Amino acid sequence: MVQLRRMLGVLRENEDPPGAPREPQPALAALPGLVERVRGSGPAVSYEVTGAPRPPGLAVEAIVYRIVQEALTNVVRHAGATAVRVRLDHGPAGLTLTVTDDGRGPAGGSGLGLTGIRERAAAHGGTARTGPGPDGRGFQVLVTIPHPRSQPRPEPEQEAGVGS
Predict the structure, then answer these.
(1) Which residues contact 31 (CB under 8 A, 6 or more apart)?
(2) What pLDDT sits at residue 109?
């Protein structure tokens, strides 16, 4: 199921016309540039990174970027917000991403963008919650993505008769 969700996410994102040049998937290092572009289109956007960064892998970096991109797009299109806070926390168990705005708050619907955020998080074992901000005003997207579990190394097999 995880592989199928990843593939559907790739297909959904690939809306470029045939033959269009392909660009590498965005990574966490590209988030400040995304924030700057949104700042230029309206709301004041703050960006904060906390915790000890631990490379989550390129696939997780790409989905975190896409989730922030979708959340900020929703703010610009729907929220009427004057301020947005983007926070990425590198915790011991994984990444926690929070995007909070001071806009109108939930509109009572769940569009494809919010569904896509949930699907992206779930594809990597994470969760996504969306709804009113912590003080009951505005809107918040809260996503947690666990660190990939390290695969245990297989025990070397003993040959029959060796060491007996």
Answers:
(1) 47, 64, 65, 68, 86, 88
(2) 58
Report pLDDT for 79: 87
Residues in the chain: 164
pLDDT tens figures, 10-37: 555 555 555 555 667 889 999 999 999 9
Q: Scan for tokens 């008769």, then name that residue.
A: 161
Q: What is the mean pLDDT of the chain?
A: 81
pLDDT at 95: 94
**Can you tell me which residue has the tokens 């631990």?**
54
The domains of the chain, with CATH numbers, are 2-9+25-146 (3.30.565.10)
What percentage of residues in the chain have a pLDDT greater than 90? 49
Evaluated on CA atoms 49, 50, 53, 59, the torsion sign reads negative
Q: At 137, list the tokens.
A: 């005003």
C-alpha to C-alpha distances, 54 to 49, 89, 136, 148, nearest whole angstrom = 12, 10, 32, 11
Q: At 138, list the tokens.
A: 């505005």
Question: How many other C-beta atoms are found inside a 10 Å radius of the C-beta of residue 45?
Answer: 23
Q: Which two tokens stand for residue 76?
A: 């610009």
